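Chain A, query sequence.
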Amino acid sequence: MSQSMLYRLDLSNNQIHGIIPNWIWKSKSLSHLNLSLNSLVGFEGPSHGALTLTVVDLHGNWLQGKLQSLPPYAIYLDYSDNNFSSILLTDIGDFLQVAYFFSLSGNNFQGNIPESICNSLYLQVLDLSNNSLSGPIPPCLSKMSVSLGVLNLRRNNLSGIISDTFLENCTLQTLDLNRNRLEGEVPRSLANCKNLEVLDVGNNQINGTFPCHLKDISRLRVLVLGSNKFIGDINCRGNNMTWPLLQIIDLASNSFSGQIPQGWLMSWSAMKANEDGPYSKQLQFEVLRFGDFFFMMVNDAVTVIMKGLELELVKILTIFTYIDFSSNKFEGPIPEAIGEFKSLYLLNLSNNALTGSVPSFLGNLLKLESLDLSSNQLIGQIPSQLAKLSFLSFLNLSNNRLEGMIPTGTQLQSFSKASFENNAGLCGPPMEVQCISTPATKDGPSNSWTGNNHIDWNLIGAEIGFFFGLGIVITPLIFWKRWRIWYFNNIDRILVRLLPLSWIIKLKIMGG
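Chain A, predicted structure.
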């Protein structure tokens, strides 16, 4: 087939080196181009002359230098995971007039986000994450929420505030601004985005109180507010929260205070479901569908503290559930509602001021893999029910006021002593302090709680027999005169037959 007849070219996931030849951009018939996951390093010529290309996928190469132009009529453009290192074109929006999907993620683009990008009236996915972009987020991007479904700007150096300009007919499903230098509060107009599933503003400098104005977004699945400057309690007044699909919530490293509200947790139905669904099911956003081709955006990563390590979940599985309220000022007991979260994988309540005991209902969380309750004010013994957590691979109960024996013969003893240290009253393996049990006294009564309160029937039988025999001999001597006379006359002859002579002499001497 000649190049003039080529409609679709897919050479993805090979080991192709060199540059992209200029004839590709000059083709009069080529519509779909996929050269992703190769080792290509550059372009032979500019791509703005490619008037027929509608799909261009170049992600996962070594393309470098300056991005000079884009195919002007492409609806799907993926230049992610390359080595581009320039500022973005000032007029980049002019190349995106009909684009639905545009990704420059995982490069080294610098400078500001050009406001011309807001000229992309049909854009549904904009992914500029994992670059070195700086300056403010253009306010017009918030207004684009009537078409945008995914806005991903995570891991840049963006500053300023999040503009409070989200429109009433907002269609945004994912807003990811994690790891920037943003300030201000969570905008109230974000409540207009009723389809919002993922909100990640973690690792910024955002302040204010808990965003109760988002409580009616019933489709919310992921809420990450961790590592900011939030203050106050999280008990929203009025109607209870309605987040039945919530599966990931991260409030860690803020200054939230007060008790964790029981009623708020009760609405999280997704964490109560006991399903073993397919692990391949992910949160995803359908970008476009035409002909035989179907494109979708898998929602980007969420950073979690798992098993004591900071990990990045590249794909958010719909069955993965996670609660992190660590490093705040929460107080009071651990809410009983948590005991119903049978789908929970990770629970981190460390570094707070929680009181009461380690609740036994945590033993109901059979899928739990990581449990961190360290650095609180918990008291009492470690409940034996925790031994039922067969998937538990990380446990930290250190720096509390726990006491008593660590349950023996269980998985709990497979953890290192660091999991239990700085609890002055704990004893038994893996701790070096041995438990001391008080033994029962030798001649004292049996202690009922030791299990030694049995009856010795042999001893009782001997005592009864002794007193019965003694009564047969003594009673006639007292009440029957003839028997008493016969006894004194014949006792010597009876003793001679039963005892040796030496014993009889001793008895007579003792009797006078």
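Residues 284 and 299 are 5 Å apart (CA to CA). The longest strand covers residues 284-290.
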